[in-house]
Amino acid sequence: MDNVRSFPEGDKNCYNLNLTKGDRYLIRASFMYGNYDEKNETPQFDLYLGPNLWCTVSLQDASASSSFEIIHTLQSNHLYVCLVNTGEGTPFISALVLRPLKNTTYESQTGSLDCFGRYDVGSTAEDGFRFKEDVYDRYWVPLERDDWTQKTTKFSIDSGNDNDYQPPSLAMRTAAAPVNANRSLDFPLGSMDSNSKLYVYMHFAEVEELEFERPRQLIVSYNDFQSEPFSLEYLKATTKFFLFELNSGQEGRISIYSTEDSTLPPILNAIEICMEKQFSKLQTAEQDVDAILNIKLIYGLKRNWQGDPCAPPAYLWEGLNCSDNDPPRIISLNLSSSGLTGEIPPYIANFIELQYLDLSNNRLTGSVPEFLSHLQFLKVLNLKANMLKGSVPAKLIEMSENGLQLRHLEFGYISVEGNPDLCASMSCKKKSIKNVVAVVILSSLWVLMIGLGIIWRLKRRKVTASGVREYHSLVLKNLHVTYSEVLKITNNFERILGKGGFGTVFHGYLGDTQVAVKMLSHSPDQGYKQFEAEVALLLRVHHRNLTSLIGYCAEGNKMGLIYEYMAKGNLAELLSESSIVILSWEQRFQIVADAASGVCCGQKRKGGFERKNLLAAIWVWSEFVVVDFPQISLTQALKDHERL
User: Fold this and answer.
1) Percent of the chain surpassing pLDDT 90
2) Alpha-carbon Rg for the chain in angstroms
3) Mean pLDDT for the chain?
4) Which segments of 416-559 does DSSP mark as H helices, in order?
5) What is the pTM for the complete model shown?
6) Which CATH number is 286-423 given?
7) Is the dihedral of CA 104, 110, 111, 117 positive or negative?
8) Adjacent-strand bridge partners of 119
9) Where are the transmembrane segments (predicted)?
10) Biggest CA-to-CA distance, the chain
11) Of the candidates 103, 510, 50, which has an alpha carbon nearest to the alpha carbon of residue 315?
């Protein structure tokens, strides 16, 4: 025990061991101060096993050592060995040992035994021993007395496969017998301060080879109790277990006799004397422990949560409150302002007796889970100042009407930057339906506006051919560009912007100005008709939502229109899934309004169109509608006969 581990911080510091419920262990805690802190002040502190006080550690001086041992059957999958600061010095520990035992050994009514005596009877050795001589690492102390005589053998003692206690051969090779062969072998136990139950394990083996005598026969007695006679086998271990009750203040004595038929004195090789340990407090319900440990793990909580969450009550975990039940249950969980992120964990549903839950002032996301409504004892639910979204489950709202206080209204807001909102009323679904209806109505209005525009324009299709020719003459006079100039503008049609129903659009430069040049690709007759319609229309229409006509080309079958170029692309690209631009609903509505405004502007102009010309005009407008958004147009929006 040359090293120690001290715990200068916190009132309770624990070793948390994940084991298996129902298993039995020998647990040993050892202490030697050794003046490790150079204060020369031996501390005093408490040692807890789970929620129960195991012992008080108090050493006589710096060089003194002390060990406390207990045989304990696990009541859950979690074992806590805790050092508690009682204000009399810093707790420390030199060694903590756990050794698994067979469940067929050391059984007790309470599940715990404090073994205060384990003796190698008749041994004359100076020091005790443990592992490797003992497979269970039990510590055996040599014991001899003046009224005893030693019996010994040089041969190993066979414990056999049927003896689960496996007494060590080193202890079994020696035995004690009374000097007076006619006397008993006695063990005075003294008196106890309170009523106690003693668990006594006696290990016997015949160490003398008997040729003519009958086998040694023995009887064990304790106060008024007397066992049945039993005999010993040569070099084979036998273990006898006895349960004795010792009343407060009563002197106890264990005696071993030879039967009247036996000619040999009684012997004893080894003995273990244990007292039943009353651990009355139960650990926190395992379901709650697993849940709170998982929550701690998920959120990476740095709180000083050690040992049993609910016990002892003076060292309750921060943020928790527990019931007085057996076992205790977590009834209150306060994780407010704990830096929590992510969704509300499902483990909270395991706190079946939870009454108060405070998760406020964190950065929790996702929706309010339905499982919270399954907590039938829940009285207060505080979720304010998070980033939750969606709606509170209807069942929780019903619970609030029956006494549950929902504290979440402060963070129910809508943010265009993407912050989620939380709706806390039964009208959430109705509101959602209204939103859907609103979108449907707006979409219908948009279709209706286009339809009305078409009908309105059809009623005014009396534009004469002479009118078109007048505009055509104007174009020839003011905006004509030769085909060779078109080649120069487009650098021999180097860059294609897109293809429409009647031609291909190329990028070009007219001086320092970027332009879009659409060259007609159909037969001269059909292309010329389309060409006439576009030129006549665009020369008459001037609107902020329509791009401007800059020039035209008409040389034989080489016909083209030169438009203002919109550098940011078309509406199809803008609305595609791959677009990096995210439009708000306000911007989307503005696009619809601007497109409708452009359509309406064209329909208000005098002159008639055939249906195909009208569709072509709509296609032209659709290509060049400019929404109220910097440098975004409908250029290239209609490809391969697509329609807006």
Assistant:
1) 45
2) 48
3) 80
4) 428-458, 465-478, 483-490, 524-540
5) 0.62
6) 3.80.10.10
7) negative
8) 141, 271
9) 436-456
10) 150
11) 50
Q: Per DSSP, what are the bridge partners of residue 262?
A: none
Cβ atoms of residues 527 and 520 within 8 Å: yes
Helix axes 465-478, 524-540, angle to 10 degrees: 80
65 DSSP β-pair partners? 32
Q: Which fold has domain 112-276?
A: Jelly Rolls (2.60.120)
Strand order in the sheet with 78-88: 12-18, 78-88, 44-49, 52-58
Beta bridge partners of 46: 56, 84
Q: What is the mean pLDDT of residues 109-125?
A: 92
- Model confidence pLDDT, tens digit, residues 513-567: 888 888 877 655 555 666 666 666 666 666 666 677 778 887 777 888 888 877 6
Lowest mean pLDDT among 223-232, 258-267, 532-541: 532-541
d(CA 519, CA 558): 7
Domain boundaries, the chain: 5-101, 112-276, 286-423, 443-624
The answer to whether 230 and 259 are in contact (CB under 8 A) is no
Q: How far apart are CA 540 and CA 632, in angstroms?
A: 23
- What are the tokens at 17? 């061991």
Provide DSSP, 564-595: E--TT--HHHHHSTT-S----HHHHHHHHHHH
Class of domain 5-101: mainly beta
For domain 443-624, the CATH superfamily is Phosphorylase Kinase; domain 1 (3.30.200.20)
Confidence of residue 131 (pLDDT cuts 50, 70, 90): very high
CA proximity to 500, closest of 563, 553, 548: 563
Query: 474-494, pLDDT tens digit by residue?
Result: 444 456 788 888 899 999 988
CA angle 77, 83, 86 (to 5 degrees): 140
Which residues make beta-bridge pairs with 185? Answer: 256
Cα 534 from Cα 240, distance rounded (Å): 114
- Whether 197 has a binding-site annotation, put simply, is no
CA-closest candidate to residue 293, choices 326, 317, 311: 317
- State the Cα–Cα distance between residues 269 and 612, nearest whole angstrom: 116
Query: Do 5-101 and 112-276 fold alike per CATH?
Result: yes
Handedness of CA 128, 134, 139, 142 (dihedral sign): negative
Whose CA is closest to 522, among 554, 486, 487, 557?
557
Nearest alpha-carbon partner for 390 in 431, 361, 346: 431
